[in-house]
# Entry
Amino acid sequence: MEVLRQLSNTFWSPNVWLPPNVTWSDIAPGSRDDVHHADYKDLIWPLPLAGIIMLIRYSVERFWISPIGKSLGIRSTRSKKAENIRPLEKLYEQSHRLDDKKIKLLAKQLNMNERRIERWWRLRRAQDKPSTLTKFCETSWRCLYYTYSFIFGVIVLWNKAWFWDVKNCWYGYPHQSVTGDIWWYYMISMAFYWSLTVTQFVDVKRKDFWQMFIHHMVTLLLMSLSWICNLHRVGSLVLVIHDCADIFLEAAKLTKYAKYQKLCDTIFAIFTVVWIITRLGFYPRIIYSTSIEAPKILPMFPAYYIFNSLLIMLLLLHIVWTYMILKIVIDSLQKGLMSGDIRSSDSEVTESSESQKSNGVSGKKVPTKTE
# Structure
């Protein structure tokens, strides 16, 4: 225990996390009558709140969103099951991938027609795919949350000086009060990301699964450290910027599932513009403030480099996702509409060229991001 205590004291040294000549006791709750500092113990609240959010989500999806989806004619059934061929099932469990070389090898080993193997593989992969209604429900929930979170964030930040001038994030630091509305904004946001981290393993699996997992982890780490170090001002700006574009992304997917193609294309175009403005415009402005403006106002400390590294990591993810989004836009303009799901599931149609021909499509899925 003594070793752990020493490691903890070393890790949480104020020389690392706080400006020079500032200690943890200086920013502890109640240390000053004129400032209400953030309390690190409050970080426990997002965990039970995440459970409540998951219960709310279950209720909303089952009793409200699902009936709406069904009324729109969205399918709740999956593709028909593949016939029971045990050798193929064993190989499928080992790897879901299928190419021409593997097809020919299986045809020889099992004495089966290549077309029959391809058809079985397609049906088996389709069997694992969730129904369109399931995806509609999940997407609707995220769209509702991001809409609420963005509106709530703007309302909370509207009368805050740092919302209009980022440099106000640094004036008076670390002695900056946490108001009740900022407290709730932070706690609910963290609770939502905790809930996403848990449900991601049971929700529809996307091609960017690990990208999103890293995104959630980095976001939670940033929020927790910013709360502990009383950097909630810049943290709240990062939050509100991230919620805006996601509303339109989820809305575009909803209209895709409901087969309103023109509306889907229009919303996705709006999403692309909003994404570029917020993620590659406003967000780099925050990084500029943390990198250039903050050192002119505050004495620097080691945690500064930790926070900036995490912020830049998120920016790199944004750049990767922007590249993928622009590929979708170009592909859409060439084909006249958006092909496939906006964020494809992990279930791809077989990769063999014969399979692609039989499906009559290119086999290309759209791999964009959300959150």
Remarks:
- Residues 238 and 283 are 7 Å apart (CA to CA).
- Residues 338-371 have pLDDT under 50 and may be disordered.
